[in-house]
Hints:
Layout: E1 2-10, H1 15-29, E2 35-43, E3 46-56, H2 59-66, H3 69-77, E4 82-90
Antiparallel strand pairs: 1-3, 1-4, 2-3
Helix pairs in contact: 1-3
Amino acid sequence: MFVLSVDLRIKPENVESFLAGALENAAHSRKEPGCRQFDVLVDPEDRSRAMLYEVYADEKAFSAHQQTAHFKKYLAEAVPLLASRMRHVWKRAAP
């Protein structure tokens, strides 16, 4: 299992545009054979704070995700709307 969380700070003027792009990417990602979960989460008190929570079968599945057209579109269109982006890879403590 390969788990990724991405902490995001969206530029306040771009919140709705970013979320639309992130949700589109998530919907396509969920259809990938190696994707187990892909959630776009927002802070209920500050919509400019968001998090992506992604679970893939393995690192190979995540690498395949990064080659998809929808991911490349997300990078090109949605990422510039961010003030910051921090990625964290997670692994289970025990198998």
